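Sharing a chain and its predicted structure for anyone who wants a worked example. Both blocks are below, sequence first, tokens second.
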Amino acid sequence: MSFQVFGLPVSRGVAIGRAVLVASSRVDVAHYFITADRIEPEIHRLRDARDAVANELTTLQRDLPAEAPAELSALLDVHLMLLHDDSLTGATKHWIEDRHYNAEWALSAQLEVLARQFDDMEDEYLRERKADLEQVVERLLRAMARGAASAFAPAPGVRPRDFAGEDPLVMVANDIAPADMLQFKRSVFTGFITDVGGKTSHTAIVARSMDIPAVVGAREASRIIRQDDWVVIDGDAGIVIIDPSPIVLEEYRFRQRQSDLSRERLSRLRHTPAMTLDGKRVELLANIEMPADAAAALEAGAVGVGLFRSEFLFMNRGGDLPGEDEQFDAYRAAVEAMNGLPVTIRTVDIGADKPLDRMSANELRHEHALNPALGLRAIRWSLSEPGMFRQQLRAILRASAFGKVKILIPMVAHMSEVRLIFEALARAQQQLTDAGKAFTKVEVGAMIEVPAAALALSSFLRHFDFVSVGTNDLIQYTLAIDRADESVAHLYDPWHPAVLKLLAQTIEQSVAAGKGVSVCGEMAGDPGFTELLLAMGLRSFSMHPSQVAAIKQRVLRTDAGKWAAHLGAILSSDDPERQCAATALQVST
């Protein structure tokens, strides 16, 4: 019998496939697919961990003091029994051999299977043994983390063995870490479902960037859906259908075919210049995360990269930070791939929902902060690590010798930060000059993500060459809404009058000062905001390559001048979204 789960629609379209569960754990677990030649080494890692934990437990039991309660020794016996039970470590081999999961993921997946069996037991004593099982698994995971470092170094581009035949796959999880999303981005999933998250949580953003359907904030989805269940993801309505009937399946497959035809029609606009009906030329740029994404940017018809999120070079590395030469190679690869088109590289935006594996003393304090979104992140973190910051600046500057490069600084809020940024840049330039390494003059821009920066924009414009509005964080900080928290997701409102006024003010002041201004947040890639942004005077949009065609179509159909005449009414309205809809009717008649 089919049933439904409701969540937040964050990436449009329909996905149909078999469920692949990523089980949650109190221990951080790497999730990636392995190649066939890694199967035996992963099984050996699992066995080594089992033997190491067995030795730990045996030693603990042997060294128990004479006065220790008998129950404690009995508990260790239970843990040893669970450890050697074939339904745990033995069955975990299935996930490695058949699904090509890495050992940690395989163990977590088997824990999920066994935990549900314990939950279904009628005997209360047996149900309570689930906690013992979880403790044993956590010991195994920690033992593996202490072992081979290769566990955190998946081969790039690895795809899962097609265990489901021709069946597509959808990912189901309580939440998906940014590092895992980066890995899954190179994989074969046709949709995502998570229990938690909001419309601009990292999972939602990456799903949209991959142009695949996703539903987040679906509460108990990962507990209700089982491995290999057939699942339909309705990314338009925020509905997940488990074990759909044949009639429902056929309806959603028809919708998939319609969506594919629509994408094909949009793709024909690839080489059409983006120009409004009244002759205003518009720059459509791409957001990318890795150098390889540059190809998709060109294929989509983007005229440059408006945002290269450099932090993804720093993540999923088991604690290692990329050196200057490694960063330089990555930046140069992206610049060269864009064939002379501009590339804007944002300095590392670590923190909040994108923590590093490696943690310094400062980062340890940040990890336990009550609100990491307000803590040590983005430029604050970079300025707290001046050696790392200058290293990144040198790498970006060196890449400028191979094409047009701009530097973008995230989360600037204080003039004291501006002074430190340009001092670091000057020192990096001097270091390169002293070393005889080539670089060219680059434009430096600030991201406007904090209301303080929008309100003090005139001061920033005296120092920066351009600004780029990060609407995701601007909305979050203006409305005091944690954008990754589904419990307040209904309050995250890009149509809020305060947000729109800050945005319009930023665009107007930048244009008046003769400085470039773009929007690189989610609003740039949302067709529902295209006319309004054009009315505000925005002429530079940066979005994921998959969104370029839809925004171009909207630009080509818009008379920016007519919309600008209605801007005051929209911004002064208590309900700008409704006023915008009314304006669309007026302008079209």
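Comments welcome. The longest helix spans residues 39-62.
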